Amino acid sequence: MSKIRQTSHFLHPSTIWASKEPQWVTTILGSCVSVCLFDKRTCIGGINHFMLPYWNGEGLESPRYGSVAIAQLFQKMLEFGVKKEDMVCKIFGGAEMLAEQVSVFNVGRRNIELAKKLILELGIPVAGSSIGGKLGRKIHFNTGTGEVLQKYLFKNNQNEAK
């Protein structure tokens, strides 16, 4: 019995990753959000990592923005032969990491709302999520199984992640 070695990839902010081959994709989220799309029929998965909800139409159309990142990930999955009706979604992140007096921007909450809205509009069911709160997350997404492992990131007194 041979063991298939899965490769791994670190997903930086403002990027997307989709693969026909099984891979573990790792990313770290604070107020940013990651949407994971997976198809059980073809075992193809993809993930994005966006920082802000909407692109304002100025400058480069970048996956830095959820409105762009979700559309690009969805399109990439379709290019790989996945059918919309076979996709499921998982959503992670969107914590409010800033101090109370600065959180007037509510970036995490706005990122979550945008992700839920666009996924609903696409008609893709949300199979799971871990969103909001005050703690960052480190997630590992398996593009071949749809499995997501999560670890919360706690801060100590020196403001360093544990």
Question: How many DSSP-defined strands?
Answer: 9
| Approximate strand percentage | 25-35%
**Uncertain regions: pLDDT < 50 for 5+ in a row?**
157-162
* Separate helix tally: 2
Query: Which strands sit side by side, in order, in the main sheet?
Result: 2-5-4-6-7
- For the record, the CATH architecture stands as 2-Layer Sandwich
Radius of gyration: 16 Å
Oligomer: single chain
Shape: globular
Q: What class do helices, strands and sheet pairing give? A: alpha+beta
Helix content: 10-25%
What is the CATH C level class, in words?
A: Alpha Beta
- Residue-averaged pLDDT, rounded? 91
Total domain modules: 1
What distance separates the N and C termini?
38 Å
| Biggest beta sheet attributes | 5 strands, mixed
Verbal overview:
The chain is built from two helices and nine strands. With 162 residues, the protein is of the alpha+beta class. It has one domain: 60s Ribosomal Protein L30, Chain: A, CATH 3.30.1330.200. The strands form two sheets. A five-stranded mixed β-sheet has the order 2-5-4-6-7, covered by helices on one side. Strands 1-3-8-9 form a four-stranded mixed β-sheet, with no helix packed on it. A hairpin with a 5-residue loop joins strand 8 and strand 9. The longest helix is centred in the C-terminal third of the chain and has 16 residues. The protein is globular.
Note the topology.
Blueprint: E1 7-10, E2 15-19, E3 23-29, E4 33-39, E5 44-49, H1 66-79, E6 87-93, H2 107-122, E7 126-131, E8 136-142, E9 148-153
